[in-house]
Design a protein that fits this description.
Two copies of one chain form a homodimer. The first copy, chain A, has two domains: 165 residues, PSTPO5379-like (3-Layer(aba) Sandwich), CATH 3.40.1640.10; 123 residues, PSTPO5379-like fold (2-Layer Sandwich), CATH 3.30.2040. Helices cover 25% and strands 23% of the residues of chain A. Chain A has ten helices and twelve strands. In chain A, strand 4 and strand 5 form a beta hairpin. The longest helix of chain A has 14 residues. Chain A is globular. Chains A and B meet through helix 3 and strand 7 of A and helix 3 and strand 7 of B.
Chain lengths: 308, 308
């Protein structure tokens, strides 16, 4: 999951119980969008309508659209582009970036300004609104929305194979880290680096984990690095202190770094959908940029099997 | 150009003069292929039939084809896949990997086993033949050929814009360097890193150089890094000692490192087509792998403008 730390507000905590009942009735991507549109879904979307694809959302002034498209094309592992506004200003129709996946299969009957449960708004690369319920005021006819793949899809596949990610077993967010691996620059988007998500596995399971996630290229695909030695290569100083998400734990609740000498908990790193948001912020671009609030993804009409 | 050090043999030196006359008559990609097929082209193909696309060639046992295809898809900047054998064992027909570019436009009337001027052959990841004239003996019905973009295309565009790469002005090979930037792994292809080519430019020209090369995404596109500080980020220890090609010089023939304090010669780095050969060798895969001899590229039927 591409989930930033989302500290629940008092309102959120109060509504979680009601939401847990309600989200069980949300079985399709469209169900979830309609619930978000009517502001009746206030918890993160992890595990909601589990067979449907969830997307990172990034909305830019049109003058940056070509460069962002190129950034995704040049960095498809951390920034797998699923689709974008059918035309500048279009918040209801998406054109597909995935060969063989028709536009209509990605998103129909949608309002991208309201259909993610929560949004963030940036102005001149600074966060000015966090977790707002819609972006109807901020959206202009000059904006272009981009949908970027989210690793939720392969987490379902791992779970089906009996390799459930530890963070979901423990009810925690996936840990995410800044790295020193440079993104290939594209136009205004320069100077940024990969963000990675981490799930730990037994050393003997890593090849199977690689195989299972390999087919999910539209949602980050197979890991980019694994093993304790990968930390130095990625420039990760402390595995226990991720930059986003919750710190990783062993099965019995110890810090992951304490498992360094066993083969039971080897860190495995994947490209992460927080990367494009980072790239936008590092670039310092001007104007109003909008995104989903991390953890509160946009649900699509296509299913995980459509893109595997 | 994706050119490894190609030390001319005595035979090569003797034939260069005759070749220089002959290559002026080779105006199309097909002309060059036919000359190579009849073994009458023995010099590197840099500058030959300049408007036609040149390709890096990599030929693998079919069991590695899916992983190599994925390696290219995950690393499109250093490994831009133009096309591959229409089916396993096909050395005469190519299917296009470039949207909008028909198969027939890439290569018609070809024999990939004979149409590159010179080849290298590897067995179990070790070089066993260097610069041979054909690979008809080594090719089997189980082999798949891949064509990977070559930066020749954008060098022509730079020259047209008055930004002729220094190495071509000086009649030297482009310098190429190993880096510590990891490739995103794909199946058997793990543990390898980007190879980059370098051309130096005035600091004030770099944005223009970026713009011109940006459109050439099928042949590495815009630079991945620039400036003297990039050396540390890429893990390049000594700019004067490239791992392939000739050492870079200033306009007046000094070592490039001596220009470090001026804005006249700032190193600019691009993804390089040597990367996939490196990745194949680092992976230690078994069986017979073939490639063009670096510098002796396969000429295609499409032109630079077809892919820009």
């Amino acid at each position: 999951m591409d989930v930033l730390v989302a500290k629940p507000t008092t309102h959120l905590v109060q509504s979680i119980e009601a939401d847990e009942v309600r989200i069980r009735t949300l079985t399709t991507g469209r169900d979830v969008r309609l619930a978000a549109r009517s502001n009746t879904l206030t918890v993160p979307t992890s595990g909601v309508a589990a067979t449907y694809l969830q997307a990172n959302l990034l909305i830019l002034p049109s003058r940056y659209a070509a460069d962002f498209r190129l950034l995704c094309a040049r960095n498809p592992v951390p920034c797998p582009l699923i689709g974008e506004s059918a035309e500048t200003g279009a918040y209801g129709s998406i054109k597909s970036n995935i060969p063989g996946l028709p536009d209509s299969r990605i998103l129909a009957d949608a309002d991208i300004r309201r259909d993610a449960p929560r949004y963030n708004v940036y102005h001149d690369a600074k966060l000015v609104k966090q977790g707002c319920l819609d972006i109807t005021e901020e959206w202009t006819e000059d904006h272009v929305a981009f949908l970027v793949g989210c690793s939720f899809s392969f987490e379902t596949a791992l779970t089906v194979a009996g390799l459930t990610p530890r963070h979901t077993v423990l009810g925690r967010n996936v840990p995410m880290y800044r790295t020193n691996i440079p993104l290939c620059p594209a136009g205004v988007f320069t100077g940024s680096t990969y963000v990675v998500s981490m799930r730990s596995y037994k050393a003997s399971d890593i090849e199977k984990v690689r195989e299972i996630t390999r087919g999910y290229n539209a949602t980050h695909g197979e890991p980019i690095a694994w093993g304790w030695s990968a930390l130095e290569n990625l420039g990760i100083v402390d595995i226990d202190i991720p930059q986003w998400g919750d710190s990783p734990l062993t099965e019995d609740g110890r810090r992951l770094s304490e498992a360094k000498d066993s083969d039971d908990d080897v860190p495995v790193f994947w490209g992460c959908g927080v990367t494009p948001q980072e790239a936008v912020m590092v670039s310092g671009i001007k104007g109003t940029v909008m995104a989903h609030a991390p953890g509160h993804m946009l649900l699509l009409d296509c299913t995980n099997s459509d893109i595997a």
